[in-house]
Amino acid sequence: MAFSLFTKSKSTILARCRDDYATKMRHKYAPYYHAMESQTGTNIRLYGRDMIMLSSNDYLGLSFHPKVIEAGRAAMLKWGTSTTGARISNGSRVFHLELEEKLANFLGREACHVHAAGYLSCMSSVACFAQKGDMILADKNLHSCLWDGIRLSHATVERFSHNSPDDLRSVMVTITGAAPKLLIIEGVYSMEGHICRLPEIAEIAETHGCFTVLDDAHGFGVLGRQGRGTVDHFGLNDKVDVICGSLSKSLASTGGFVAASRDVIEYLRSNSKQTIFSAALSPCQAAVALASLEIMQSEPQHLERLWSNTKKYRAMLKTLGLDVWNSETPAVPIVLGSKERVYPFWKALLDKGVFTVMSIAPAVPPGKDLIRTAISAMHTDEQLEKIAEAMAYAVKKL
Ligand SMILES: Cc1ncc(COP(=O)(O)O)c(C=O)c1O
Asked: Which of 258, 275, 298 is the endpoint of a domain?
């Protein structure tokens, strides 16, 4: 009897997998999981055709920088391929300490801890500091890793309208009691490309004594002096307690970081499950991030080129009458409003040799179904012209 019950429950899960609507749709229209056959910078080859990559987070275009590639190669020769263990046990190496110290200095923080994924860093920046009984105030449009951190923390959560200091203020006044409060925001919102209204939001957080966590995965390398990020952009370093982010975007690696005061980072090292029970960042990826960080400080041309490309690109989309959701950064959505409009637009771009990513509800708010594009410093003028032609063609297909 026990055996038949077990069998029944297993087949239910298998049926759920087999009959899943999202998977069926994904197979029918095939918009995701395309495996490129080759890549050189923003040139990719897909299904035997040369295309332009227009949705990578390689904002500064450092993933093909010779010094970055050489740093990764040298690190593997010296340290092997993997740390094969967690930092707390056998996985710590001196190169982790060097990267952490340099990131902390760059961000004006006392300390930093790096993880093998940005997802882990950002999730642990919430899950580890909040606990049952605490009150979390969360922007409605946070990245999935931060929501996972919120769920894991078991704290109570109140959402406020995306990037709205007014709504945050009105939610804040409804909160009674002395529970510790945490504010969770992003520096640059990844789908929308919006810069956080940090001056007003940080002031509210300060008035109400909030511990503030800011995920700057898309602001790091893009905003602030030499790419120090959103907090530096506004000169508000003393108003944010934790800056977390990713090594997989401007730093052209994979992995993530959490930067804060020494006490806060030491607490994370003792209490964060994502930190304690996950293998440490690999030698190659740590070396790549470190080399990119050095290049951000010694070669300003990448940041300059990123912004000049971004301005040209946004102006072009505006001329075509496309809705970019008031994006202010190189992460530029093209909002089309429904999946019926997004799919043909995405397909038309692909037919014209431009690779983008479609994002539909529930990944974005209803009515905001969009094509997610991102500009890189590596895009050439010629590529921007080809992108403009492809966009004009896709607009006609709408
Ligand atoms: C805002 C934000 N936070 C965290 C992450 C996770 O970073 P990673 O992809 O390096 O794990 C992402 C990645 O898309 C992101 O957009």
From this structure: 298
